[in-house]
Amino acid sequence: MFDTVLEVSGLNKTYRGKRGTHATDDVSFGVGAGEILGVLGHNGAGKTTLVNQIVGILKPDSGTITVAGVDAVSHPAAARRLVSVQAQSNVPITGLTPRKAIELVGRIRGLSKNHAAERAGRLLNALDLDEWSNKPAQKISGGVARLTAFAMAAVAPGKLVILDEPTNDVDPVRRRLLWQQIRVLKESGTAVLLVTHNVMEAEHIVDNLIILDEGRVIAEGTPASLAAPTRNRLTLKLDNCTSKIPDSIHVVSQDARETTGYIDIDEVAFITEWASTHCERFSLTPTSLEDIYIALVDRKEAHA
Ligand SMILES: Nc1ncnc2c1ncn2[C@@H]1O[C@H](COP(=O)(O)OP(=O)(O)OP(=O)(O)O)[C@@H](O)[C@H]1O
């Protein structure tokens, strides 16, 4: 069990306007010290609106947010001091180098000069950024800028770190280094709220997750508990089949060429034989969190 750092309860936020979007709809969850909570959701699901309320940029219409015992709705500045954020768009650091930018945030967040320099150096090295550490910000790539933004959030992390799509633009090798550093934050007892579209990556790092859709939490739990109902199912992809898809395949998506669905494990022999005869290619894989996520969001849309 984790000691709760962030507690969100019954949160509601509607953007006024012609459509009156209910962007946060009765959202409740908690994140504990040393816990990584993944917040998954499609574009427009309400992730940024949620983060902006936690950090005090937006005021909720109703509900409560508590950060390490501080009421973040009534006292946003006090709560904000306990939180570091890597926002979806990087903070401009023009005129600085990655090293200077990370050190500066460390100093602003209360580290001594030596400690800020030591933390910046360690993060730059761990993320394999030494080569760019002293280059002017105007000359660094998007991926290096993204990793620098992560290091700025991690240099003096506080009780809670919020990472909004931290791996965008980052190459696969440094992406792994980034995940390692997120684990280091967790191990040091920081609560981490990881906002992402990337379900496959999140599956390997989060302790718990919530899935947001149209502002609502439509599923929550550990990756294993969300996957449990599908333990006896396999995901099937079929390419260019020339015969009607058998009823024992539960189709999730289909276009002229490709069909994706799932089958019960005891149908494997029959489906393998059918697909080898009637389809150009097919694959059977264990059901991933991404499959579950898509099925959950699609099911909700089908019932709308
Ligand atoms: N300032 C605003 N005024 C009106 N509607 C808004 C505003 N900001 C966001 N919305 C709407 O609120 C909903 C949630 O948007 P939000 O940006 O929180 O989603 P998101 O999950 O962060 O999306 P993405 O993954 O694309 O960043 C969307 O329907 C969006 O169009």
Give a structural overview.
- The structure is a single chain.
- With 304 residues, the protein is α/β, with parallel strands linked by helices.
- It has two domains: 4-222, P-loop containing nucleotide triphosphate hydrolases (Rossmann fold); 232-286, Malonyl-CoA ACP transacylase, ACP-binding (Alpha-Beta Plaits), CATH 3.30.70.
- It is 34% helix and 30% strand.
- The protein contains ten helices and 14 strands.
- It has helices spanning 47-54, 76-80, 98-108, 113-126, 142-154, 172-187, 199-203, 223-227, 268-278, 289-303; strands at residues 4-14, 22-32, 36-41, 62-67, 70-71, 83-86, 160-164, 191-196, 208-213, 216-221, 233-241, 250-254, 258-264, 279-286.
- A six-stranded mixed β-sheet has the order 6-7-8-3-9-10, with helices on both faces. It has a four-stranded antiparallel β-sheet with strand order 2-1-4-5.
- Helix 3 crosses helix 4 (113-126) and helix 3 (98-108) packs parallel to helix 5.
- The longest helix is centred in the middle third of the chain and has 16 residues, at 172-187.
- The protein starts with a strand and ends with a helix.
- The model has no long low-confidence stretch (mean pLDDT 91).
- The structure holds adenosine-5'-triphosphate.
- Residues 15, 17, 21, 23, 41, 43-49 line the site of adenosine-5'-triphosphate.
- The site of adenosine-5'-triphosphate has 12 residues, from helix 1.
- Keywords: Antibiotic resistance, ATP-binding, Nucleotide-binding, Transport.
- It comes from Scrofimicrobium canadense.
- One of its GO terms (biological process) is response to antibiotic.
